[in-house]
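Reading a protein record of the kind used here takes only a little practice. Each token is a code from a learned vocabulary of local backbone shapes. With that in mind, consider the following protein and its fold in token form:
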Amino acid sequence: MGDPEIPPLTPVVVGPTGVGKTAVAAAWAALEPITVVSADARQTYRGLDIGTAKPPRALLARVPHVGLDVVQPGERYSAGQFARDAAVWLADIRGAGRQPVVVGGTGFYVRALAEGLFHEPPLDAGRRERLRAWTARLSAARLAHWAARLDRRFAGGGGQRAARAIEVALLTGRGLSWWQQHARASGAMRPWYIHLTLPRDALQRRIADRVDAMLAAGLVDEVRRTLARQVPPDAPGLDGVGYREVVAMLAGRLPEAGLREAIVVATRRYAKRQETWFRHQLGGDTGKGKRETGHVWTLDATESPEVLAVRIAARWRAVAFPVSRVPFPGS
């Protein structure tokens, strides 16, 4: 029996949107019983399936997934709430005798799960609600501006993340980054990162192909249906890449002929931000303001998902079960 205070080693497949994380996880599931824990902030929203590239139904029927369809569009779902939920999912998966594999591109979700949550100080409920009413009226750019002014170490991450940084800074007198560094609990897992990458031109081609597929599958109608349910056009979920461009088009702020290119450009920029984040942020904090890199295995995803899955599963078996002599499928 291991030390119960040491969280279990857990494989975490990360990389930018379009790199092929879902396909690799699907191929891995054909080799051994894994359950995927989605660490994708966009895929938590029910009904937003096409624009978030949720796994197809056939794959979901074959491979168990958790972390999908957690909240309704318009509801907030923070990295902290994800970490609390995912800690339960990980324990349940292991209790069922399966191997959890965290898969996703939302770096803040992965970090919260790996490094733990900070102990939030008590916040005045009345002031918090008034502050949230104010931040709800600000654009993403203004939220980012105020978050950076209030917390010099604010690392970005979208409007919801910026609103959270503003809230903590104004209600506690200290920045979110300070609380994360000085009041952090232990994480729910020890990550073993598999960082999938692609040459820029190859990733850009995949992104363009994905956008074409989303539009052909009915992305615009998906947004129309969501708006028809009285979800505000700037609500959490609809403020993500792809959705906000469709919202702008439906509102007449973007010509229909320019929709595809707008989504492609925004997705490329998002993928670049993801790659920058994973290059610099994977690992743990040393407690001295610096980060030390944990185990990160970078793989070129130009190989087929099946080939990558065999390589990943074999190395994972060697890392997780170093004294095992049980032959691996295909070995």
